[in-house]
Amino acid sequence: MTSRRSLQLILNRIKISERVRCFGTVTEGVASPTASSRHLIDLEHDYSAHNYHPVPVVFSHGKGSAIWDPEGRKYLDFLSAYSAVNQGHCHPKIMKALIEQAQTLTLSSRAFYNDKFPVFAEYITKLFGYDMVLPMNTGAEGVETAIKLARKWGHEKKRIPKDEAIIVSCCGCFHGRTMGAISMSCDNEATRGFWPLLPGQLKVDFGDEAALKKVFEEKGERIAGFLFEPIQGEAGVIVPPDGYLKSVRELCTKHNILMIADEIQSGLARSGRMLACDWEGVRPDVVILGKALGGGVIPVSAVLADKDVMLCIQPGEHGSTFGGNALASAVAIASLQVIQDEKLAERSAEMGEELRRLLTKIQQKFPEIVMEIRGKGLFNAVELISKSLFPATAYDLCIKLKERGILAKPTHNATVRLTPPLSISLDEIQEGAKAFHDVLEHDLPKLIKEKPKPTGPTAQNLCDRCGRELYG
């Protein structure tokens, strides 16, 4: 009894702390009495693996689209943890679900049943119109699950011989950093030194219907699945040509190949539709969800498919200790309900249109710097002209944006992603666009003038897989 009372006291403190920290106004802008941003950054550098290159800002407090650092400085988040925070930071309904479930039950493992996962399973399958769900934790785990599922289906249902199943993916794709995911990657940083990569992979150019048709016709008997992002995120928010997704559906059906949509970033209202595939009314055979499924609170991912596909995996053949845990299930239900109740897909479409309108005006003012504005909903990117930035890069511009109170992240050397929470206000959209304008007008000329030019040989950005320079 004593230990249970102690645990209850701790949870009550957490509940009170979260209510004050996330929902109250008294702490907003108040500096943390503990460590400084500089000290925390140094600690991470000294004690954590150097597998990221973060923009130097420390998150201490978040609410909606806003972030505060330990010193009390406020920023607008225009990255949303790569779409994991679509609903906004510390959404009160999601936090309520988290806290209430944490006080009751967190984990059973799938060795037993719990009273939350079955409810979540029914809810998510009915919402998206599939027979079954396989729960995991991270997006990368969801991708690995889909690869295994496709291979097993290919062997059992399509009668592909042992060791001959092929997964087709796209140049420029990003599906995570596990071995299966990087085996489909064109990113040299993700693949170099980690050989041998997983066999059974073929690549086509994203958006190229003719290339997909050709590979299906030549090797379709051994192809189990076509795994793709409906909008490529890490490649720079690349939107395929109109009609491409419909063509993919038709080709996959014709050649009996699983159409597998990685909607981890593009899904859950990010693009202005619940799924990015909804823009063309296309139903994939397999859908992978993650990121915003956990509401920015806890990792939750899910693979959706019908019984004909999903039941190819039998007990003991795949699983996860934490997949489908009670805490994640409760949070995921709340996260999906918030997206529906607050009409975040519609809001994303509306706010995204306004953001692109403002960015297009900036492009018209700086045509020698801004090459292209692209995106759907609040899934957007600005591609800049590399030679106009040199020796600066998109990362340098993101540092300057941070100094102006806007948090964004580049992808490759000349593209800046702008993907704020879907709950962002019109005023905040305008504030972000103005900061981007001011960086180009005032900060970039100084960067170009003051940043030292590289003196040694520069590495060519050629893809190890196909030998092409894919990104500027």
UniProtKB/TrEMBL annotation:
Belongs to the class-III pyridoxal-phosphate-dependent aminotransferase family. Keywords: Aminotransferase, Pyridoxal phosphate, Transferase. Signal peptide: none annotated. This is Ornithine aminotransferase. CDD domains: OAT_like (cd00610). GO terms for biological process: L-arginine catabolic process to L-glutamate; L-arginine catabolic process to proline via ornithine; L-proline biosynthetic process. It comes from Mikania micrantha. The keyword Transferase applies. Pfam families: Aminotran_3. It catalyses: a 2-oxocarboxylate + L-ornithine = L-glutamate 5-semialdehyde + an L-alpha-amino acid.
